[in-house]
Amino acid sequence: MDEAALIRAAQQGDQDAFERLVRAYDQSVLRLAMNLLRSVEDARDVYQDAFLRVYKNLHSFRFDCSFHTWLYRIVTNLCLDHLRKRKVRREESPVAHTESGTLDFMQMVPEERVDGDPQRHLMSRELGRRIGEVLRGFTPRERMVFELRHYQGMRLKAIGEVLGTSEEAAKNCLFRATQKMRQALGDFV
Amino acid sequence: MTCELARSRLSLFLYGELSFDEEEALQQHLESCEGCRHALEREKVWHEAVDLHATEPPANLLAQFRQELRARLAEERRPHRTFALWEWLGEVLHAPYMRPIGALALVLAGFLAARLTAPGVSPVSQADNAGHGPTATQVRYVQPDASGGVRIVMDETRQRILSGSLEDLAIQRLLLAAASDAADPGLRVESMDILKSGADSPEVRRVLLQALRQDPVAGVRLKAIEGLKSFSAEPEVRKVLADVLLTDENPGVRTQAIDLLVQHKGAGMAGLLQEALYRDSNEYVRQRCQKTLREMNASVGTF
């Protein structure tokens, strides 16, 4: 069954079709939320709330845009809310308590195998720390555009559609974000 | 184009987000400016460094979130009480003077319901009541028929539910297939979690070993290694564990491999741990190797 048929079936209340839609997209939704929020707890909230909203509002989806754009609009709005709230609320908490024990977000960043070269290992860790710092220093919109372009590989035109802004505005945002990243990593690379 | 303008556009150039004219102007500038070509190389280096900093959600986390979502969706689907109207009706109908009127209303409601659900009134309801369980339906084409009605041709995908114990061969076969489903790491974790209790079967053990060796998702490999706990003395399992200790990219999986290997400290164990101690970049894994070597009275510094 193609995606459009799956969506129509889910709109008619087919639970299996809805579950298949979730499974088609939920890995990339979770990756996006975790990369943006750098917190397992917040990513869990976004994951749950996003798919619940999709479930409740799927009947109003009219195929005016792709399902991917519609879903990402929901996810990015939820993430932006979290990022904005966090500015006044607290620092990021990278640790979460799950059924399988405590999860540290930093453990999910793949570790570079450096075959016992301690100097290179230290450099790699320091570089990772700095990248994390720069990402945290981005404004919510810069972080969003950088994430969608750099990690999710979306074109600026599509990012504009998701964020409800123009391609040019997304481009300016990406430009500012890359400038900050270049300045922070300049002496490292 | 000035060098300053060229350098400010390098990232957008790497993302392929410059307009045709902007890219053309930058290419021309790069051909004649060695400094900016060098800057472009540095730009590529930081882009790659940032790539490495991406996170991949562990598959077991994805599986857990899916379960939580299923529970919340089930909660959503549960019918809500429409209390106010019914409570009010209940009170009114319980009043003594309303009893004859209520009885009459019930008779009327029963009569109407019987009329509306009588066979032959609604062919759609007949189809729905066939009792085959949920289906995903796609209408292929529709056409009027000779009797003035309509003929609808549709494709149906029917959902089947199978229940049984892990000893049931049909269940086991489906679980083994799900454990190797390349497209869905969450399903692999869930299947592996069930299969791990059936590792007595050589077929299950073979799938666990294969997942431990090859699955790209660390969460799946961790479930596989859990299932092999009771078989850590077997030569084939030990061989894979040794391989995992030296080559797996995830420190958690490497640590688990040590835990299983040390259950049976055989020949070659000290050499393997020494090699891991020499090669591994993760501090915790190195400490774990050192601790085990000390417990075995083996050297940690003469390799």
Tell me what the structure shows.
The complex is a heterodimer of chains A (189) and B (303). In chain A, α2 packs antiparallel against α3, α4 packs across α7 and α7 crosses α8. Chain A is elongated, with a radius of gyration of 18 Å. The model of chain A has no long low-confidence stretch (mean pLDDT 83). Chain A is mainly alpha-helical and 189 residues long. Helix content of chain A is 70%, strand content 4%. Chain A has eight helices and two strands, in the order ααααββαααα. In chain A, strands 1-2 form a two-stranded antiparallel sheet. Chain B has 303 residues and is mainly alpha-helical. Chain B is 63% helix and 6% strand. Chain B contains 16 helices and two strands. In chain B, strands 1-2 form a two-stranded antiparallel ribbon. Chain B is flat, with a radius of gyration of 33 Å. Classes of the chains: A mainly alpha (189), B mainly alpha (303). Chains A and B meet through α1, α2, α3, α5 and α6 of A and α4, α5, β1 and α10 of B.
Quick structural gist:
By secondary structure, chain A is mainly alpha-helical.
Beginning-to-end CA distance, first to last residue of chain B:
58 Å
Percentage of residues assigned to helices of chain A? 55-70%
| SSE-based structural type of chain B | mainly alpha
Distance between the termini of chain A: 48 Å
What coarse outline of chain A follows from CA principal-axis ratios? elongated
Topology of helices and strands:
The complex is a heterodimer of chains A (189) and B (303).
Chain A: H1 3-11, H2 15-37, H3 40-57, H4 67-89, E1 95-98, E2 101-104, H5 118-137, H6 140-151, H7 156-163, H8 167-185
Antiparallel strand pairs in A: 1-2
Chain B: H1 3-8, H2 10-14, H3 20-32, H4 34-52, H5 59-77, H6 83-94, H7 99-116, H8 123-128, E1 135-144, E2 150-158, H9 169-179, H10 185-195, H11 202-214, H12 218-227, H13 235-247, H14 251-261, H15 269-279, H16 283-295
Antiparallel strand pairs in B: 1-2
Helix pairs in contact in B: 5-10, 9-10, 10-12, 11-12, 12-14, 13-14, 14-16, 15-16
